[in-house]
Records
---
Amino acid sequence: NAGVMQNPRHLVRRRGQEARLRCSPMKGHSHVYWYRQLPEEGLKFMVYLQKENIIDESGMPKERFSAEFPKEGPSILRIQQVVRGDSAAYFCASSPPGRGLRRTEAFFGQGTRLTVV
Amino acid sequence: QQPVQSPQAVILREGEDAVINCSSSKALYSVHWYRQKHGEAPVFLMILLKGGEQKGHEKISASFNEKKQQSSLYLTASQLSYSGTYFCGTESQSYSGNTPLVFGKGTRLSVIA
């Protein structure tokens, strides 16, 4: 059973370009979470999605950032018009269906390291 | 809303013990502990549910005091492989039943020979 798959592992974008980060959850998992991690800092929650629904986006910046988790295919975190401050590691985690994370762990992907030049 | 972890960093010699604390100002339903090595994904260690449960994982155990909204991670007889950054993730009580994990800033543990 493959784990949470994220791609690309490394992404370099020039300022003003768009970045698309993909996350395929573990088989059977219907909950996806995106986190951002700056060097030497903790994991900052961005958005929580279930299939075709955004459950909680309280951690998402109001502009330029969007996320989706379509019925078919991976979850996508999209950053438009990237700026240097967007450089970070972006981690995706997934968990099985049920009442969120109340009784089960979230499994993390290897992350996408975004560098904006 | 972010849980507070202490200490921020600790250095141990092999075989020594350590305690990492995590506290929240909000009523918690569960606490999750993860370890992350440099450049890698966080790896799940254990989950503690409301009810003051104490869980164990080899020589790593944890407790959850729901009255104080605190959790502690206990590492005994530390090994070199324990080095990494430890994060606690907390889930607050919610009527909806769907809340994401909010993580602390982490505790950097270094075990030296």
---
Amino acid sequence: DAKTTQPPSMDCAEGRAANLPCNHSTISGNEYVYWYRQIHSQGPQYIIHGLKNNETNEMASLIITEDRKSSTLILPHATLRDTAVYYCIVRVGLYNQGGKLIFGQGTELSVKP
Amino acid sequence: AAGVIQSPRHLIKEKRETATLKCYPIPRHDTVYWYQQGPGQDPQFLISFYEKMQSDKGSIPDRFSAQQFSDYHSELNMSSLELGDSALYFCASSEVRFLGETKNIQYFGAGTRLSVL
């Protein structure tokens, strides 16, 4: 699975959009980009994933560059409850078996009032 | 919606004792994963099971073993506990589909906090 690089920490004002970048320059054509977050000592929580098209769900939007070497997770209106460590994970999404998640450093997002 | 259930939530053991952690996946999920998160560290993959067969193995010590039962629940057995085994242990489950769309989304339980004294 491709390696990812994320900034170690970011701040965001409450109510503003939080844009979390991730570099994955060695990504392969069949690898997906997944985002998870972990609020202090809780189980990691799935946010969103994508292959090459931009994706949006009720939690966030995922913007993947055309060359797929980087992506940005967007939380449109951050709240204090979005304070967490955000992990960008690139992996092959095999349809016939599960696959482990390799958690890297992640970005610690602090949402401030 | 039903979530992944882990028990117990907290466990305190002495060195050299054994511990058994249990995980009940989301209904219809066929794959279970175990992760270990030490203090101040990121979660590390231990082992996974797909349809009751071991599907992948990470940095799991030989003192640890796990299995998935016919009802898809899983147990992580840890023997000869060491101080360094003190950690959060997360179980996750996913449903792998043969419908063309690859999701492979893992849903995590709340974890078991193991303290070895």
